[in-house]
Amino acid sequence: MARLVSGGLGGGTQYPLKLTAALPATLPVAALFFCCRRYFVQGANAGAVKE
Q1: Which residue from 1, 30, 37, 29 is spatially nearest to 17, judged by alpha carbons?
Q2: Nearest-angstrom CA–CA distance, 30 and 24
Q3: Are 1 and 21 in contact (CB under 8 A)?
Q4: Which among 34, 22, 37 is positioned nearest to 14, based on CA atoms?
Q5: What is the pLDDT of residues 1-44, one digit of tens each?
Q6: Helices and strands (H and E) in the chain: how many
Q7: pTM metric for this prediction
């Protein structure tokens, strides 16, 4: 992906190619979030200040 961002694959901006390469990097993080979102919300609520 670093070669895509730096333009190492040729001239011009190749946004479809960059987006296609970014998708596999994003999917595992999104899957982890959706599987564990209950725990993220519980942790955020546990650290909240009640008045």
Answers
A1: 1
A2: 10
A3: yes
A4: 22
A5: 666 666 665 566 677 777 888 888 899 999 999 999 888 888 88
A6: 2, 0
A7: 0.51
